[in-house]
Fold this sequence. Notes:
Blueprint: E1 10-13, H1 15-22, H2 27-42, E2 48-49, E3 60-64, E4 69-75, E5 80-88
Parallel strand pairs: 1-5
Antiparallel strand pairs: 2-3, 3-4, 4-5
Amino acid sequence: MLPQHRRRARIAFTDSAAKQLENITSEAGIHALDRALVVVSVDPEAGEPIPGSAAGPQLREYADEVERVRLLYWVTALRTVVVVAYLEV
C-alpha cells in the first residue's frame, strides 16, 4: 500500500509581504525564506498562535532559529497560507 501524502498548502502574500520579498537580493535571504515557506506549506500549524481578537484571522508566527527568520501568517479555511510579513532576526 502506498503511503498517504498530504497536499501542501498554497502560499499567498499580502501586498506588504510581496514588497518585502522584492527587496531580498541575497541568495542566503532567498534560501532562508524558501526554507520557512516549505515548513509552513507542509504543516500550516507549525507556527505559534499570536494572541489577539477573535474578530479577524488567527495570526501565527513561525520562527526558524537556524536561518534566523520569522514569518507572520494566517491559514484560510481552504488551507492557503497567507504570509503577512517576513522578518530577518
